Amino acid sequence: MSTETATGRYTALYGEHQKLGASFTDFGGWQMPLKYGSELAEHRAVRATAGLFDLSHMGEIWVEGPVAAKFLDYALVGILGAVAAGRAKYSLICNAEGGIIDDLICYRRPATGKGDRYLVVPNAGNAATVAAALAERAVSGPAGAFEVTVTDASAATSLIAVQGPESVRILLKLVPAGQHDTVRRMKYYAADEVEFTFASGAHRLLLARTGYTGEDGFELYVPNEAAAALWEALLEAGRDAGLAAAGLACRDSLRLEAGMPLYGNELSLQVTPFEAGLGPVVSFRKESDFVGRAALEARRAQGPARRLVGLKGLGRRAARSHYPVLKDGAVVGEVTSGAPSPTLGHPVALAYVDAGLAGPGTRLEVDLRGKAEPFEVVELPFYRRTQ
């Protein structure tokens, strides 16, 4: 089971990471594997074959009831009621001022006798905050309480991801032949319950074709008590395919290449969706009100003073978080994430810059500890898979 001590929280897979010789780091209060050996080798494995990730620090919050869809349309900025059962949607939960509390994925599951059912997956450090916000919004809607239940299942649930071009082939080794087509034909941002056989038993798990690496891949939701056995079974199934256990270091470089924001870096309560390039996620087509609507409408009309952009390094030195972005020696922005790109062979970064300098092709500099290094604004993502 996941545990919590004075030194941090530990996932149900902590022992598995120790066996593999992982180096650990604190992430959102969790002790998570940073890398197992070479973070560069792990990054390249995900791009070329596959990587296995422990994401059990993420949250899992179930929302269920006759008006679950209507409730989430109020609580989040997107239209969740339009999501078909078996599909997923990326969305945001904002505060009344339009600041981003978290970005998250919502899976709509088949309805039950209790009504519609959704799985909301927030980020690790925000899981308790999002659960509390949803519970509060469930009882304080514009017309009173919504007929829904909000259940935080994070403490009992592990999440394991298989990411990379070999991910389908690896998963099929643990899935009965009758469900192979279910896995093969699953669309991006879709999910289904699939039977996996491991530890001499059959386990029906929620399998989602989602991820945070820019590659094809899947995420598996599993009860804590079965997580270690599934992890070991996946490692064995992927041995001949080049599957590598992968830590947070390469997960960060992978998501950066894919231009995906990280809460706490690119996203925060001080950032609105329009600054972050997430304006299309906000739906003003909803006839009903939603939390933050008035503030977001005003911010949209005003236009953002700064925008999140991708920066391609024209030299060899990489920018890092909080480094100043310059134009003709004047500070015009700040880097939020930066690193050398193992796939592309040059530095890449995400940064907020003055809106007038956000166009692709704009030449800027980044102050790398007193030395101005040249960068160029480019369209995101930096990397896009071809298959």
From TrEMBL:
Q: What is an example of a GO molecular function annotated in this UniProt entry? A: aminomethyltransferase activity
Annotated GCVT N-terminal domain ranges read 13-286
Instruction: Print the keywords alphabetically.
Output: Aminotransferase, Transferase
What InterPro entries does this protein's entry cite?
GcvT (IPR006223), GcvT/YgfZ/DmdA (IPR028896), GcvT/YgfZ_C (IPR029043), GcvT_bac (IPR022903), GcvT_C (IPR013977), GCVT_N (IPR006222), TrmE/GcvT-like (IPR027266)
Reaction(s) catalysed by this chain's protein:
N(6)-[(R)-S(8)-aminomethyldihydrolipoyl]-L-lysyl-[protein] + (6S)-5,6,7,8-tetrahydrofolate = N(6)-[(R)-dihydrolipoyl]-L-lysyl-[protein] + (6R)-5,10-methylene-5,6,7,8-tetrahydrofolate + NH4(+)
Any Pfam family hit? GCV_T
Give the signal peptide, or none.
Answer: none
- This enzyme's EC code(s): 2.1.2.10
Limits of the Aminomethyltransferase C-terminal domain: 306-383
Quaternary arrangement and interactors, per the entry? Answer: The glycine cleavage system is composed of four proteins: P, T, L and H.
Spell out the family assignment given in the record's similarity comment: Belongs to the GcvT family.
Function according to Swiss-Prot or TrEMBL:
The glycine cleavage system catalyzes the degradation of glycine.
What is the protein named? Answer: Aminomethyltransferase
Tell me what organism the protein belongs to: Arthrobacter deserti
Q: Give me the gene this protein comes from.
A: gcvT
